[in-house]
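Justification of computing resources. Each target in the renewal requires a structure prediction run like the one illustrated here; the chain below, 460 residues long, is used simply to show the kind of job we budget for.
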Amino acid sequence: MLLTALLDGHRVEATTYSAESWRELQNSEDRKRMVMPVCGIRATAKTRGTSTKYFAHYRKTECKVEHGGESPQHLAMKEALKLCIDRIPGWHAIVEHPHPSREWIIDVLAESDDRTRRIAFEVQLSSQSPENYFARSQRYFDGGAFPVWLIPRQLEHNQTIVPVAVTGFGKTSTVPDDASDLLGLPARQNLVHADDNLGAFVEALLRRGPSWKHGSPQAQADARKAAAEADAAAAEAERRKQGAIEQAIEVMNDRSASPEAAFGPHVVRTQTDTYVWGSLTCCWNCEGPMLVWDARVWAWGGATPGLQVKPEVGPKRFENHPEVHRAVDNWIKAARPDVPKAAIKPRRTKASGRLYSAFVCPSCDTTMGQIFISQIRPEKWSILSSPGGKSKAPAPVSMPATTPNRTTAPVPATPPPTRAAISSGPAQPLRCRLHGTPQDWCDWCQKRPNPKLGRRYPVE
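Resulting structure tokens:
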């Protein structure tokens, strides 16, 4: 069932005939010279119902070409599309436009009068596989025509997307006497901004063109392939980066040692409740040695803190506190190492530009990444200073042996100083955690309440 045939080499369309002229064609001698447009077999003019006019094979058995059967609903939709396209200035419709190879036919081709724009409307009322949608859409794209599928219901989700307009008009729908009534059907689509009916959609599509960013099915497949290859390349680059980082960490650990192993046990006692650990490592740029450190505050009445080197630090870090620097300098005076102390300077991350305080090489000013410092194994650290009174100097303390799997290194069990031992007498105010000598301006030293700091000591 087709709407077109060839008469003496010229196209004739069933939609252009009235009921009376159609009957005249059926009874005229011209009917014997009509042939089907693709296979060239003799055609005959037929009528179904009161309004459906179409061409069919005079003898179907003589045809070897697969035309595919078309229902009255299919023919009516094609007629409605032709009527809508022909009334838009600058456009004309070609019903059942054959490809030059005669291998396939476009249901309704909308072509601009200057032949620069072509839109292929395909009426698909029966189900077909996604592969057929993709293959048929691709051949329209390759042929220079933008395809639009008119379907009764939404397609199932698929990675590949084709242009569709869902009308709700299917094979079992009632065929109106006037095909133009189908232009009032709803048209759910995402190709162009238009009113929710088929006629307004077709007119807006022809006047403004489709807003289609997905491309052809082959272009979408190529884009997915390129994205997958890019993801694989990024994953491989990340794997190599992580491998290089792990190798750099291993090299850093090989070049690192605990200060106790290098210079003997020298633990400096401070009047502040701060523990400081140190590690001897080398610059990755100039290979110059340096001392890096980590600090923790001991809480009154709490357990002795363990070594937990932070992988990330902010603009202010406790290791840069003057009291911590003083403890490290006192250890250097006591141990007399031939390794300089690393500097702490502000730096910014390359990825996000975040400001942080980093250890830098004292020789070449190269940044020592905090993530690498945090990966130095626990056995490469040892205690530099711990809390203790002036009058009482406990025996030197060394780091206990730890397994590589431990992420923290426990500090030797040194008895925490008592408040009575730290204070020089009952008349002396209780010191804070950072100042050995009470300061008048310090809320902690004077035990003044501070809403930002909270209550640090029990009320006596």
